Every structure is written in C-alpha cells, then in structure tokens.
Amino acid sequence: MRIVGIVLVINEDRFIEPVVRNIAVFCDEIIVADDYRTRDRTGEIVQHLAREEPKIQYRKILRIGASHEMVAGYADTDTWIFAVDGDEIYDPVGLERFRRRLEAGEFSDWWCIFGNVLNCVRLDEASHEAKGYLAPPSRSMTKLYNFALIRAWDGPCKERLHGGFIRFHQGYDASLRRDLHQEVAWEDADFRCLHTCFLPRSSLDHGDGNLRLNIMDRAAMPWWRRLLKRDRDYVPWKMQKYARGEQVTVDSRNFFSRIPQQGQSGADG
User: Fold this and answer.
1) Which residues are bridge partners to 33 per DSSP?
2) What is the pLDDT tens value at each position of the chain, 269 positions in all?
3) Which helix (H) or strand (E) holds 122?
4) Using alpha carbons only, what angle is made at residue 205 by residues 199 and 210, rounded to the nearest 5 degrees?
5) Which of 46, 89, 106, 115 has CB atoms 3.0–4.6 Å from 191's, for a disulfide?
6) Which pTM was predicted?
7) CATH number of the structural domain spanning residue 215
8) How many structural domains compose the chain?
9) Is residue 235 included in any domain, yes or no?
C-alpha cells in the first residue's frame, strides 16, 4: 500500500511548511503543484523542504487540471491519493496512527474518507490554541481516495480529484464514503485538520483572509466574475460551508510539533 499526497497551492507561504511537513509522516510521496501565478515565498520554502526530504517533489503548473494528471495513473493500484490544499494543516501525530489503520485494511472497502476539521478564525501558536468552527456541523473538506477501487479516473478534470469520469471496479461506487467526522469527536480523531480558510495564508495577503478563495473556488467562478475580481460575492458561500455552529477553542500543539525551532517556518509572519 502507498499513500501519495498531491498538494495544490498558490501564494501559501504563511502555512506551507507545516502543511507539507505534517503529511510527510503519512505519505510515501508528496507532489506539490504550484500555480504559475505564485509570487510569494511558497516555492522557495517547498524547494527547501524537498532538499531535506526526497519524497517531496515541487512542480510548477500552468493549468490546475495538470494536478489531476499527476495522480490519474495511480488508478487500479493499491494507492490512497491524499489531496491537500495550502490552507490545511493536519495533525501529524494522528496521521501516524491513521496510517497504521489504513495498512491494517480497516478502510480497504471504502472509496473516500472524510475527517474532522476546525475552520480557523484564530490561530495562536504561542498559547497552542486554535479557535473556529468544527465539522460537524460545518462541512468537512478533507480528501482521501482509495484508488484500488477504480479502473480509471479520466476525462475533463478541473483539478485533482474534481470532475471527470470515474470507472469503478464491480461492486464499488461513489456512495462508499466514510464520514469519520460524523463518528468521532475532535479530541479522539486521528484524521483531523486545521483549515485556515478564514486567515491570511500569504505574506502578500491583506485583511482577515475572508475574501481569499482557494484555487478550486476561483476555477468554479464564472469567467465574468473572475474578470471583475468579484470575490466578495463568494464570502456568504464560504461562511455557509465553513462557519456553522458555535465557535470552539482547541489545543493545537500537535499541529506544530514537527516545525524546527530554528530557521524559517511557513507559519511565521
């Protein structure tokens, strides 16, 4: 069994170091696909991490659909594809335990796994606290797919694991979704993520981050809104997905335990 991480980023230098470092304990291979429009230090930080860890590959892409082509060839192999965005910081301690569960075959008959999420409105590394909205009741956006259950995933894909046509092996289909965030409390979860969707994610960002769309959000936007930069129209949609329920505060120390004390951290700044 292999786990391949595919990280799609554009201007993510504030958090890209913990994003990539934390999944390195979980993945056998990590592909960081960086949009050609990136202007901050994202590429510099990832390339530094790649020199430390050979399993990390850094690739510049001209179109986000290329990110799916990087993983489509793993169909019909004993591979889990783990899609991560530059605003998703996973718990590396929990991921180590979760990998052992995958290797033991606990989830072999499931097509996709969704985990626990805290959509952050505040992240204080000094006090080891993160505040935000939990999934549930908010939506989980984690993406872990079992490519052993499919013959192919091809056709027009807007980005990795979005769109196109999936051909399943007999007896399997897209309904085989395991919603671990509905089964396990945040405190007990192995597969859990700090989603920094409401925070500035780049040294180039200004404000509180609410108007910052990820790559897939922007790809889904009508061409005329992209032309007019009508990001503001999408704020209510973002709040509807990720700001449900009451705000809670959680201990975040596990999520930054792999960041060296000295040197550059992507979360600095």
Assistant:
1) 8, 59
2) 999 999 999 999 999 999 999 999 999 999 999 999 899 999 999 999 999 999 999 999 999 999 999 999 999 999 999 999 999 999 999 999 999 999 999 999 999 999 999 999 999 988 999 999 999 999 999 999 999 999 999 999 989 999 999 999 999 999 999 999 999 999 999 999 999 999 999 999 876 555 556 555 555 555 555 555 555 555 667 788 899 999 999 999 999 988 886 443 434 43
3) strand 116-124
4) 40
5) 115
6) 0.89
7) 3.90.550
8) 1
9) yes
